[in-house]
């Protein structure tokens, strides 16, 4: 999970008995804002913690930055992991049709 998720996500994980593994998002040096998790960062975290059960992604971030969600989901599913996506800001960025497709994909990814 990225360090820039909402505190409630971290608290819920801990209260549920989980142990967070953080993937530090990069920072845009020009704007000074946090970016999303990189695919490479997720790969490294998965390799360092092969017993992890899920990947938590906030996409887009609170600054509206979208990461490579499709690649992260594919990587996690290939390793047999669940993917949890906090993406309440997606409808603000997408058309209604695209938002419906995105949310449909998100629901399907959680069922795997």
Structural class, judged by helices and strands? alpha+beta
Distance between the termini: 19 Å
Side by side, the strands of the main sheet go 1-2
Instruction: Count helical runs.
Output: 5
- Our Rg estimate from Cα atoms comes to 14 Å
Averaging pLDDT over every residue, what do you get?
81
Order of helices and strands: HEEHEHEHH
The coarse silhouette is globular
Q: Catalogue the unreliable spans.
A: 105-112
In which range does the helix fraction lie? 40-55%
Topology:
Layout: H1 7-15, E1 27-28, E2 33-34, H2 39-48, E3 54-58, H3 69-78, E4 82-86, H4 90-93, H5 96-111
Parallel strand pairs: 3-4
Antiparallel strand pairs: 1-2
What can you tell me about this protein's structure?
- It is a single chain.
- The chain is an alpha+beta fold and 112 residues long.
- The chain is built from five helices and four strands.
- Strand 3 (54-58), helix 3 and strand 4 (82-86) form a beta-alpha-beta unit.
- The protein is globular.
């Amino acid at each position: 999970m990225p360090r820039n998720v909402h505190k409630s996500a971290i608290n819920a994980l801990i209260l549920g008995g989980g142990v967070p593994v953080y993937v530090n998002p990069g920072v845009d040096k020009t704007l000074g804002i946090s970016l999303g998790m990189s695919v490479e960062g997720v790969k490294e975290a998965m390799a360092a913690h092969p017993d992890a059960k899920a990947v938590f992604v906030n996409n887009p971030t609170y600054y509206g930055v979208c990461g490579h969600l499709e690649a992260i989901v594919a990587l996690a599913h290939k390793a047999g992991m669940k993917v949890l996506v906090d993406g309440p800001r997606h409808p603000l960025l997408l058309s209604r049709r695209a938002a419906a497709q995105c949310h449909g994909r998100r629901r399907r990814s959680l069922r795997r």
